[in-house]
């Protein structure tokens, strides 16, 4: 059901609703999560001595004989509203292990907490919305399909195509109870996506076309090896994964020359069919869209999250692993309350006035202003364009000759540009040499950075993606729109991580 209407703008049932720019919804909901995965292969090849050029490596600096630095961790104590999270290696067949943050979740039969599957290595992604898990990992739970026309013959079940930058996810939509730590989602059951890794139904032609147009990798991700995980836990700043475009069936349909509308696609498919041509694009009403599991928790824990990650010591080239804590809820318990005096940086909500800042904040860095900025655990590095920083050979990763200690200013998405200094929050950060970092076997890096190429090949000069390196050494609070009280926009806040 709807969590409330927007105080301003077009009437709708969720903050992410917009009339035309569903590409903005898509970009903000799925963000550019995992963008680095699309770029990492050339960088890792360069960092491993590909071709005839010289390889940059690190020796000493705390590395053991296996090329690993010491692991880092926060002091985790189980409470009513937290769960442990960890940056570490993913599935063995996945070749890229840079700053991927994982959690373990439980998926249960609706109304029956005894029929559950515990799924590990689920990517924690604050840049998308919804739980998406490999269908093969659901063995014990019985998850009823979302049926769009139960009174028709044959029955029509909901399926979904969800494009990320590294590829698309195709699978059925079902209902489930979700357990995060000790907290279970409330009634009614939550809509999730079962990623089809068993070949039950091939992706539709339109799904392949949309994925090809929106992703740098046009593949459909249908295994733990291609996904780098057993699923994705999307806990971003909205409560649904699409919005009004999907509600009213306004989709991109490239085979039929429709290029506007949502690239998040919902379908109805005859129950039991193995023929993708039998599926058709279908409007998906709000109660049936894939939703944010956090917003479906009890009221005390549904307003957002706080993430606590340890710092990576400045003297070592990353860490073997990094263990932290995901705290459920904001401003409701001692462990999730933003301290007095800490500024809440609000995401932009003025879609009509400033579309570039919609569901984004503003970053000022090195004389440039990036209106499309955001904090995203699902992006595994810092991504922004600065032509003054040297790049690695044959890639868009940054490779300065030594660590760069720099600073940026972050401010509200809907604020004036440039904002008054009093309305900004200074963020010091480092830019490291990625070839050197990737020559180790560490998985957690606090200074991995590069720039974002657009589909045209030109650099993206409007985006500053504060990926996983931003979170190290901090406690980061992130609200979900329209649930947390009188503030009419979602917000970020952060402090130093507790020792």
From TrEMBL:
InterPro entries: DUF3443. Pfam families: DUF3443 (PF11925). It comes from the Bacteria. This is DUF3443 domain-containing protein. It comes from Rhodoferax lacus.
């Amino acid at each position: 059901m709807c969590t409330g209407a927007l105080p301003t703008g077009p009437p709708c049932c969720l903050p992410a609703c917009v009339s035309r720019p569903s590409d903005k919804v898509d970009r903000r909901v799925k963000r550019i999560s995992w963008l680095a995965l699309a770029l990492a292969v050339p960088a890792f090849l360069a960092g491993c001595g590909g071709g005839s050029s010289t390889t940059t490596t690190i020796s000493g600096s705390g590395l053991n004989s296996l090329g690993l630095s010491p692991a880092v961790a926060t002091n985790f104590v189980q409470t009513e509203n937290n769960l442990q999270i960890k940056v570490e290696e993913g599935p063995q067949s996945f070749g890229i292990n840079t700053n991927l943050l994982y959690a373990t979740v439980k998926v249960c039969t609706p109304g029956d907490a005894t029929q559950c599957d515990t799924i590990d290595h689920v990517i924690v992604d604050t840049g998308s919305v919804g739980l998406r898990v490999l269908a093969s990992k659901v063995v014990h739970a019985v998850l009823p399909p979302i049926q769009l026309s139960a009174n028709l013959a044959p029955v029509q079940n909901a399926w979904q195509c969800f494009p990320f930058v590294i590829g698309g996810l195709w699978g059925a939509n079902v209902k489930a109870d979700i357990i995060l730590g000790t907290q279970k989602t409330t009634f009614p059951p939550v809509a999730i996506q079962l990623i089809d890794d068993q070949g039950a139904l091939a992706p539709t032609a339109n799904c392949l076309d949309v994925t090809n147009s929106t992703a740098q990798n046009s593949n459909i991700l249908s295994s733990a090896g291609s996904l780098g995980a057993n699923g994705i836990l999307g806990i971003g700043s909205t409560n649904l994964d699409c919005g009004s475009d999907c509600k009213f069936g306004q989709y991109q349909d490239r085979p039929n020359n429709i290029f506007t509308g949502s690239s998040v696609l919902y379908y109805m498919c005859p129950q039991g069919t193995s023929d993708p041509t039998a599926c058709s694009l279908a409007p998906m009403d709000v109660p049936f869209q894939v939703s944010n599991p956090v917003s479906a928790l009890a009221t005390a824990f549904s307003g957002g999250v706080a993430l606590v990650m340890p710092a990576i010591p400045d003297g070592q080239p990353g860490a073997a692993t990094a263990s932290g804590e995901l705290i459920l809820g904001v401003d409701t318990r001692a462990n999730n309350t933003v301290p007095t005096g800490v500024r809440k940086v609000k995401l932009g909500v003025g879609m009509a006035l400033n579309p570039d800042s919609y569901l984004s904040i503003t970053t000022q860095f090195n004389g440039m202003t990036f209106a499309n900025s955001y904090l995203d655990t699902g992006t595994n590095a810092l991504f922004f364009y600065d032509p003054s920083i040297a790049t690695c050979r044959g890639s868009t990763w940054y490779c300065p000759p030594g660590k760069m200690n720099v600073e940026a200013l972050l401010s509200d998405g809907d604020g004036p540009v440039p904002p008054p200094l009093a309305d900004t929050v200074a963020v010091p950060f480092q830019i490291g040499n990625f070839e050197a970092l990737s020559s180790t076997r560490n998985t957690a890096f606090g200074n991995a950075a590069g720039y974002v190429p657009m589909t045209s090949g030109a650099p993206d000069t409007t985006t500053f993606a504060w990926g996983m390196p931003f979170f190290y050494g901090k406690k980061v609070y992130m609200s979900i729109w329209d649930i947390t009280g009188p503030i009419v926009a979602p917000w970020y806040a952060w402090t130093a991580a507790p020792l």
